[in-house]
Amino acid sequence: MIEVLSPAKINLFLHITGRRPDGYHTLQTVFQLLDWGDTMRFSPRAEPGVVLKHPMPGVAESNNLILRAAALLLESYGGSESGAVIDIEKRLPMGGGLGGGSSNAATTLIALNTLWNLGASVSELAEIGLRLGADVPVFVRGYSAWAEGLGEILTPLTLPPRWFVVAIPKAEVQTAEIFRHPGLTRNTKPITMSALFAGQVRNDLEPVVVEHYSAVRNALNWLSNSAPAMMTGSGACVFAGFDSEDTARTVALDAPQDLRTVVVRGINESPVLRI
Ligand SMILES: C[C@](O)(CO)[C@H](O)COP(=O)(O)OP(=O)(O)OC[C@H]1O[C@@H](n2ccc(N)nc2=O)[C@H](O)[C@@H]1O
Ligand SMILES: Nc1ncnc2c1ncn2[C@@H]1O[C@H](COP(=O)(O)OP(=O)(O)OP(=O)(O)O)[C@@H](O)[C@H]1O
């Protein structure tokens, strides 16, 4: 049995630099992995086929990125006799911009590759991952990273130790809806990695989400009182970074009653690298 934490990410900034003819957007971002995620367990199964031990509320099996990842892996590398049972303790909110579904897909690709001894390389798994979603490759490679393209051109980064307050507004934002919004900024001038820490950065998706989701707006207003706060991915979660755990916890304690928060640590390497 393989048991591993399928981690969350936050986007420390996110610039949209263009739109491709196929409608997808090119971006620049920094993915910061977190020591917070879903626990996943992979066990061999005597019969062929991959099954989830428990249904996942709100996600149809045909849509579930875990099963879709397993099916793509089998299609490309597997034998018809491969079988597995997958169990997941879901902690990451859906539609939160934390990449939970993408992380689960990546963890599945890596764990089943090992469980079934398929011998696919990390690059091959990242390529399969990109077919499932733009956020999957970073979780397959398993390093906090500077990213370009759709998020699949990755340069690992060693980020300074930091604690984050992540606030989870009661809203589920559809990524596609935000990317298709006419008011979205799509022409941010590309920056260089060396200019990153000196320059002004932001999340280009944030203004569109803030305009339509008051829960996200309120969360940002609250957290901005304590530290520079930003939305992650296409929302709904927002975060702020702190040098000390104590400061982060003090800020989180002050959250409005209807706003859930977690205090989590940034990590440079994903637990999936230890599979
Ligand atoms: C916002 C981010 O989370 C930042 O890390 C990602 O760019 C989104 O990654 P994701 O959730 O894996 O998104 P996907 O499942 O690949 O895409 C969902 C939808 O968002 C739009 N989309 C997504 C990524 C991208 N670079 N350009 C887009 O226009 C497309 O309409 C796509 O159909
Ligand atoms: N295993 C899964 N876990 C979570 N969501 C899943 C899963 N499989 C499919 N989904 C679908 O994917 C959608 C997005 O979920 P996810 O948790 O990845 O959101 P997100 O954090 O906004 O992602 P991103 O940061 O990549 O935009 C969900 O609304 C759900 O319908």
UniProtKB/TrEMBL annotation:
Statement: the UniProt record of this protein carries the keyword Nucleotide-binding: yes
- DNA damage found in the keyword field: no
Coiled coil feature spans: none
> Can you tell which superkingdom this protein's organism belongs to?
Bacteria
Q: Which residues bind ATP?
A: P93, M94, G95, G96, G97, L98, G99, G100, G101, S102, S103
Which reaction does this chain catalyze? Answer: 4-CDP-2-C-methyl-D-erythritol + ATP = 4-CDP-2-C-methyl-D-erythritol 2-phosphate + ADP + H(+)
Which UniProt keyword terms apply here?
ATP-binding, Isoprene biosynthesis, Kinase, Nucleotide-binding, Transferase
Q: What class of enzyme is it?
A: transferase
Q: What is this protein called?
A: 4-diphosphocytidyl-2-C-methyl-D-erythritol kinase
Q: Which organism is it from?
A: Luminiphilus syltensis NOR5-1B
* Lineage per the UniProt record: Bacteria, Pseudomonadati, Pseudomonadota, Gammaproteobacteria, Cellvibrionales
Gene behind the chain: ispE
